[in-house]
Amino acid sequence: MSDRLRVLATRAAALLSTTVLVAAGTAILAAPTAQAAQGNSGAAAASCTATQVVANGGFESGTTPWTTSSGVITSGGGQSAHGGTSFAWLDGYGSAHTDSLTQSVTLPAGCTSASLSFWLHVDTAETTKTTAYDKLTAKIGTTTLATYSNLDAAAGYVKKTFDVSAYAGQTVSISFNGVEDSGLQTSFVLDDVALDVSGGGTTPPPNDATRTPAPTGYTVNLTSDANGANWSGHQTIGFTNPSATPLTEVYLRLWDNYHGSCPTTPITVSNLTGGTTAPLTVGCTALKVTLPAPLAQGASGSVGFDLSIAVPSGADRFGRDGAFAFIGNALPVLAVRDAAGWHLDPYTNNGESFYTLASDYTVTLDHPSSLLVPATGTSVDTPGSSGRTVTTATAKNVREFAWAAGPFSKISGTSSTGVAVNVYSVSGISSSSAQSMLTTAKSAVDSHAARFGAYPYGELDAVIDNNFWFGGMEYPGFVLDLVSTTALTHEIGHQWWYGIVGDDEYNSPWLDEAFTDYATDLALGSTGTNCWSSVSWASSAEKITNSMAYWDANSSRYSTVIYNYGKCALHDLRRTIGDAAMTTLLHDYAAAHWYGVSTTAEFKAAAQAATTVDLTSFWTQHRIEG
Ligand SMILES: [Zn+2]
User: Which residues have their alpha-adjacent CB atom under 5 A from ion ligand 1?
Assistant: First the structure.
């Protein structure tokens, strides 16, 4: 995603979102004895079932098991819920008052990742902009996660997220304590408290870093309603197990269920064949499928299922802006197991959580002939039933498949190196803006290709809408964008950094965003001179290589550090090793990871191999760890 309008975007998303991360009442609390056994298991990794461990986090099921001061869990009274009808309301009396809200939770020992989140609304009668009179403290155990005050007052709810992975295997309290002074009222309103655990897993053993399952093809047939807002049909996914460790299950990621109110979801998978499904986990975004028998190394399997997609309203990467539907991340994709176990990270709306292996896609989209459907891959239209068209899109070696549907205006051209570029504009985009974006797209694809290797996907679609709350969003061969030269050049840069050279976007977001912003600078002639001189770290914990768990908890720093410090670090690396060495490094690094996955450690090793300068202090100074 592009960082343009990042601050506005985050605020707008928080205000507009009605997402409930995880439904209340889904807690599965492991027995203490099981915890002890897992914690002492030694050589074999303990198992982790990705789940959510806060009970009644939405406050819709009475007060149990929360411990509270009087009248905290309530509904109405001038405040409203984030999801459902009830919420927790601390303080708001306008007199000296303390309210508390506590629950004890157990984090399974085998889970290596844990994320605590809640939605917070603060309103106040205080008028000061400088003094925190009334305060809310959020803690896990004895550790203070954050303190909020009347100075945080704002319309609507804001989601707060904290990485609490350090508490894996422990039973610990989550507590909120609100202290109000004798002056004007401040209300701290909480809802949808969740603690998602994931990671770990029973397999593979530490030495087996092979990424699995390796998809061998996604085949999808979907039919839309009259306006392209609802799609239904069937999907199959073939895969093999390249790992020496047998594959006993696979996970489907239903990423767009973040945009629903779990367990009510916009993506529905049913009638699955090829395995046995478990209930959805990780905010309804993960579906575990236990295979009929363990898949040995080199063996193949497949799953098939009926799929329905209901695109919600909103100019978003999965949303509808009037007559136009944007459908990113809607097709279920296989999660990855590697040396860290299964990657079942939560969805992030501040960036991307997506980590997938490249595969071939064949997708047929049966839609009214009045709608155009720009999509990943190259498309061929054939007549369907009366008034309908069947668009068949094929794509090789892509990480996902996205499309849009609507009465777009389409213009096309060919770049100097022969890439077919299509610009699809929603109503309200002038023809001169569309022409300008076509010129930008043609120039950008050739500029990036000259540095990092020829664009392999044949066709590139840019879908332009100025109502997006973000600058742009990247998908293979398909980008969403505002009318913005910088944002469009950035999203097209992602075709190489994220698309062709993949990465774990949740755990290493800098590998796609910083590299893409650096590529954007190069394409637009910016040299980043002196840009490192403005770097000012917020804390000792802040690093360019931090994961989205950190950035979701420190969202105001995400754009600054990941995009700006990240690209400036790469400009500095170029100045350190020399222009020619940097040019060769990135070109050869892309070639070595073409359709594969990049890691920070591999990039650092490649950079070190490209120069006689010892880069040890460079990585330390630029906080690039791993
Ligand atoms: Zn980006």
Answer: 1, 513
38 pLDDT more than 70? no
H-helix or E-strand spanning residue 438: helix 431-452
For 595-626, what is each residue's pLDDT tens digit?
999 999 999 999 999 999 999 999 999 999 99
Identify which of 601, 604, 602 has the alpha carbon closest to the alpha carbon of residue 615: 604
Residue 399: CB atoms within 10 Å: 24
In 3D space, the residue among 600, 575, 568, 419 whose CA is nearest the CA of residue 501 turns out to be: 600
Q: How far apart are the CA of 471 and the centre of ligand 1, in A? A: 9
What is the whole-number distance in angstroms between the Cα of residue 401 and the centre of ligand 1? 17
Report how far ligand 1's centroid is from the alpha carbon of 341 (Å). Answer: 26
Q: Is the pTM of this model over 0.85?
A: no
Which pLDDT score is estimated for 207?
65
With cut-offs at 50, 70 and 90, classify the pLDDT of residue 222: very high
For residue range 568-593, list pLDDT tens digits in order.
999 999 999 999 999 999 999 999 99
Tokens representing residue 315 in the block: 């100019």
Q: Which residues of 496-514 are buried (b: 16+ CB within 10 A; e: fewer)?
A: bbbbbbbbbbbbbbbbbbb
- Please tell me the predicted confidence (pLDDT) of residue 24: 31
| Cβ-Cβ contacts under 8 Å for 346 (sequence gap 6 or more) | 21, 115, 196, 198, 282, 283, 285, 353
Look at phi and psi of residue 379 and say left if phi exceeds 0, alpha if psi is from -120 to 50, else beta.
beta
Looking at every residue in the chain, the average pLDDT score rounds to 91
Pairing of strands 478-481, 459-464: parallel
To 10 degrees, the CA torsion angle through 470, 476, 479, 484?
Answer: 80
Tokens 């009248």 sit on residue: 71
* pLDDT tier, 492 (very low <50, low <70, confident <90, very high otherwise): very high
Q: Which is higher by pLDDT, 615 or 30? A: 615
Measured in Å, residue 617 CA sits from the centre of ligand 1 at 28
Helices 485-493 + 510-524 axis angle, to 10: 130
Residue given tokens 């994961």 in the structure block: 547
Distance 517 CA to ligand 1 centre (A): 7
Which tens digit of pLDDT belongs to each residue from 149-168?
A: 999 999 889 889 888 888 88
CA dist 93 and 84 (Å) reads 24
Residue 442 to residues 352, 372, 403, 513, 608, Cα–Cα distance (Å): 26, 21, 20, 21, 34
Distance 347 CA to ligand 1 centre (A): 16
Smallest CA-to-CA distance from 549 within 287, 198, 296 is with 198
Measured in Å, residue 567 CA sits from the centre of ligand 1 at 12
Q: CA neighbours within 13 Å on the CB side: how many for 94?
A: 4
Q: Look at residue 282 and give its three-state secondary structure.
A: coil
Residue 515 Cα to ligand 1 midpoint, Å, equals: 9
Q: Please check the confidence at residue 448 and state whether its pLDDT lies above 80.
A: yes
297, pLDDT greater than 50:
yes
At 459, give phi and psi (nearest 5°). Answer: -130, 145
CA–CA distance, 420 with 460 (Å, rounded to integer):
6
178 within 8 A of 262, measured Cβ to Cβ: no
State the distance from the centre of ligand 1 to the C-alpha of 516, rounded, in angstroms.
6
Task: Give the amino acid at 411.
Answer: I
Distance 474 CA to ligand 1 centre (A): 7
Q: Indicate whether 280 pLDDT > 70.
A: yes
